Amino acid sequence: MTILVTGATGNVGSQIVEHLVKRGADVRALVRDPSKAVFPAGVNVVQGDFLDIDSLRNAMSGVSTLFLLNAVVPDEFTQALVALNVARSAGIERIVYLSVIHADVYVNVPHFAGKFGVERMIEQMDFKATILRPAYFIQNDLMIKDVITGYGVYSMPVGDKGLAMIDVRDIAEIAALELLRREQAAQPLPLNRINLVGPDTLTGTDIATIWSDVLARPISYGGDDTAAFEQNLKQFMPQWMAYDMRMMGERFLTDGMLPEGGDVERLTTLLGRPLRSYRNFATETAAAA
């Protein structure tokens, strides 16, 4: 009984591998370059790529449970559909897929719409899957850390609806627990969706206030200018991705990323501890600076 983790060298995937190994699972990690992979002892590292069909077939051979994570790339949707088709051919029924919260609401945001299409394939093809729907990753704010600490501005266009931001470490642990639950079940379990949210729903002003408290000096909220946000992102990411992120920011402003009733309590029970808060992240980040 083997669990295959895709995206295994990324921030989420690498932590999932560690959680699974600690819990005694037989883990296989799919990576593009095995020479750069650093995993705990006992992990079976296989080279492959979502668009290299033969390598994907090899990676999935003998696998019982799959963790599917696709990077935000122009052909993300195609990669995910190929992976699911190869998984079906390999006889894999048990899947945990990392989607995104409100995938069915943010319909004009390319990487959200792609993930919703993957969700529909999983459902229509009757995979026995857990679809994890995380809100905004708290750790995404590391890319604006220097702006916060150097210029005194929280520049992410969060708006005033609020985001239920979640810590990547909590996402990884929940994903590992779901993989093990499906792997260890006597029969494949029915499909379910889980919103992954943090303990607090925060506005842009709320987040600036947290940083002000943590840094003991005024931090202001930079406002809701998504056009300027796109231009800033274009300095260090491709234009298509910067535009995708702008579209996401615009939906932050109109819709927010809000939990459903019982989400926080459900995740707290699953983890057996409180969810990590944004304030915890800000405090840790400031201390490490």
Protein described:
- By secondary structure, the protein is of the alpha/beta class.
- It is built from 11 helices and 9 strands.
- Strands 3-2-1-4-5-6-8 form a 7-stranded parallel beta sheet, with helices on both faces. It has a two-stranded parallel sheet with strand order 7-9.
- The protein is globular and about 55 Å long.
- The protein starts with a strand and ends with a helix.
Which features would summarize this protein structure in a list?
289 residues, alpha/beta, seven-stranded parallel β-sheet, two-stranded parallel sheet, globular
In brief:
The chain is α/β, with parallel strands linked by helices and 289 residues long. 45% of the residues lie in helices and 13% in strands.
| Biggest sheet descriptor | 7 strands, parallel
Structural class: alpha/beta
How are helices and strands ordered from N to C? Answer: EHEEHEHEHEHEHEHEHHHH
Show unreliable segments.
none
Number of strands: 9
Our measurement of the CA-to-CA distance between the termini, rounded to an integer number of angstroms, reads 43 Å
Number of helices: 11
Side-by-side strand order of the widest sheet: 3-2-1-4-5-6-8
Work out the helicity level. 40-55%
Percentage of residues in DSSP E strands: 5-15%
- Global geometry: globular
Specify Rg, calculated over alpha carbons.
19 Å
